[in-house]
Amino acid sequence: MGKATGFLEYKRINPKKRSPEERINDWNEIRLPRDPEIIKTQGARCMNCGVPFCNSGVLLNGMASGCPLHNLIPEWNELIYKGQWEEAYQRLTRTSPFPEFTSRVCPAPCEGACTEGHIMESVTINSLEYEIIEKAFAEGWVKPRKGKVTGKKVAIVGSGPAGLSAAYYLNAVGHDVTVYERSDRVGGLMMYGIPNMKLEKGIVERRFALLKESGIQFVLNTEVGKDIPAQELVDQYDAVVLCAGATKARGLDVSGKELKGVHFAVDFLGANTKSLLDSNLQDGKFISAKGKNVIIIGGGDTGTDCVATSLRHGCGSVYQFEIMPEPPRQRIDDSNPWPEWPQKLKVDYGQEEAISLYGKDPRNYLISTKKIVGNENSEVKEVHTVEIVWVKNELGRMLPQEVPGSEKVWQADLVLLAMGFLGPEDTLVNELKLERDSRSNVKAEYELFRTNVDKVFTAGDMRRGQSLIVWAVQEGKLAAREVDKYLMGKSIIK
């Protein structure tokens, strides 16, 4: 413990962000540099409690509690307070291969489980992680890693967080690793699913360069199962790890879903980022929200990203529809006790920007979409909704019930579906005849990651379904360990 009374002496200070009025005019990250003394005292707030729930990484009531990577958080908090930054970097990367990603886009279940957060405000774990890794890059401490050559060849399908994590660890123990990616750039949803404002793509490219320098080979613009047969990889490599994600977007089963102007959120966000990187949005190869009335169906991080992107395009208006009730302002201890993930209202960067511009939160709760209506050119012009309440049926299940007389018509020129993902796409899975679980994900036991096909492993969202980036990174690491055991009989990957 760096300072025994630090948690009593210092209040939580969140990282500063650029003002909404400024940041909606560009695509740059919104975080501002922090004062070194503030960073130090924020590290001192860590209590070094007897049981650090922050690094537990368990599921409670279906939600992550603590860090799935089991980061040694109290240790590097203390080292920050003492000014031992390189040692803090070494402790952080003992468990986390890519802190520059998780510190930007992880929702921080570590902070939700922080013991201090049970009685006061939690430690700013996420921002301290960010400070460590950025200082490490600035000081040149981050180096490529390559182990003693084993002569074993491993193919990894997908370059998202799970795929890159598996590649990092397998390469570090000396295997010859090749990563196949169907897009023109590495990163999966980190590249084309998360906007620049949350994760500037130079950060992804920076890590990509290090991984290449360490000896990992990347084959881009190549979709396994389409451009090359999946069986070809199984035949040519000693092991194959499937990390292609859960990219089958959830649709909306209402009339009008096929109209022009109705798009999946992932297509809207992905095309915008590609056009931004290719031409600074000058090629016009993206779905523009400029001057349009935008309706986003679905909440969560993806919905927030759609709000922020629409505002930067210069939309006419933007609304979010959520079918669930508005979360409470504070954790309700009886139904959502610590250290569960706190289910309380979160005003994220996109909502902050909309509130600044329009004077109100764009989210509308307990709203169900009944139909989408188009004009004579089959272009969307209206979204028809009804308010709902959740009622428990005779079996004890909560079901939505429409509120009579609550119908409403919303003007709309662009409708974005941000309702999550159903599972992995079928082509590769069907070709290899992989078994699936009840949710259509590739079937493989956690901590073993073996599929029903010899030599073929799977990890990340493709195995567990849509989830957090930290789960993907952890699964990539653990899958690498199992592949290493399969190839060598034992593994030093922890």
Explained architecture:
- By secondary structure, this protein is α/β, with parallel strands linked by helices.
- It folds into three domains: 6-139, Alpha-helical ferredoxin (Fumarate Reductase Iron-sulfur Protein, Chain B, domain 2, Orthogonal Bundle); 153-248 and 422-488, FAD/NAD(P)-binding domain; 251-419, FAD/NAD(P)-binding domain, CATH 3.50.50.
- The chain is built from 19 helices and 18 strands.
- The strands form five sheets. It has a five-stranded parallel β-sheet, sandwiched between helices. The chain has a five-stranded parallel β-sheet with strand order 8-16-9-10-11.
- The longest helix is centred in the last third of the chain and has 20 residues, at 469-488.
- It is globular, with a radius of gyration of 23 Å.
- It starts with 5 loop residues before the first helix and ends in a 6-residue tail after the last helix.
- The model has no long low-confidence stretch (mean pLDDT 96).
Summary of the model, kept short:
This protein is of the alpha/beta class and 494 residues long. It has 19 helices and 18 strands. It has three domains: 6-139, Fumarate Reductase Iron-sulfur Protein, Chain B, domain 2, CATH 1.10.1060.10; 153-248 and 422-488, FAD/NAD(P)-binding domain (3-Layer(bba) Sandwich); 251-419, FAD/NAD(P)-binding domain (3-Layer(bba) Sandwich).
